[in-house]
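Project standup — Tuesday

K.O.: blocked on the structure for the chain from last sprint. Re-posting the sequence here as requested.
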Amino acid sequence: MAVDNTKANPEDSRKSEVNSSVEDEIIQLGSGLISLGNQIAILSGGVYNINQVFSLREAVGRRLVDLGAANPDLVVLDSEVSNSTFTSLFDVEYPERFIQCYIAEQNMISVAQGLCVSGKIPVAVTFGAFLIRAADQIRMSQYSAPRSNIKIIGTHCGISIGADGPSQMALEDISFFRCIRGSIILYPSDNTSAQKLLELAVNTYNSVTYLRVTRENLPNLYNDTHEFKIGGSKQIISHKLSLITIISAGITLHQAYQASLLLEQEGVYVDLVDLYSVKPMDVETLQRAYAKSNSILVVEDHYPEGGIYEAICSSGIAIKPTYSLAVNVIPRSGTPLELMQMAQIDRDSIVEKVREIIQTF
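H.V.: unblocked you, prediction finished:
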């Protein structure tokens, strides 16, 4: 099994080529956000700087160490990818509470369930794509007594992992975990939300909780003052003239945000929602979006089957036209941007889709 050989180097993890094509000439954004070159004020005090990016994987790895210091019952399990998932940091600090399961994802989940029964809080970590191998064990854990309290982190999710190749791209994981009765799915979009959603997951009991983590380094959308909750979302952009609401999470949220800046230059305004809690969803915010907007566009780095779009459509709240941009192709290897362009979930594809939707009004 091929693995990502990225070393857990805090400095190197922040160095990533990013798409810096958001034009510097954007000066004033009608939605009240002010752009100074590549630095864009967002969300009451945060700064969105596309040239300053952070590793969500490292954020999760470091936060696990902090949570381990606070709770001696926290145990981390890994399936021989600790250098890529940054669970190696936990191993260094708490080797007695780190279990290396090697390339045996099924056993990792079984061991985690045993730890649940003994009163521990297990956090099982591997590439999201490899968790499908443990589907039976994850499913059966829900029928155990006491009910499963496993926390599962899947990294390297989506087509945007790039050159690692399709064998390691988790594109079915949301669909699978949605089917687990009583499960929780959290999908961070930056360094801050990754840490805070992890803490929520660890402190939420009696549920299989899945944290979906992107491989690509991303700019910060949030600062430490922002709070998150199970079943919540964040309104990134709200404009009184918007006719379309874009709903996204993870790396495509950033593509959608950059698309909104380009559309605003054309006099086209969109609202943008970060649906970081995929399950349960923030029904109230989505209902407001449908009440306000003519149409909804869902953008996700996942296959359309069973993803965020289908979750919204099956909820009964999709009372207006709802469109999807998702991975509808069999992926190949390439850069993250090349692959997002191939799947048409990148910034420019979002711009084109919004233009297309507007023509239906």
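K.O.: great, moving the ticket to review. The chain is about 30% helix and 15% strand. The chain has two domains: 56-212, 230-358.
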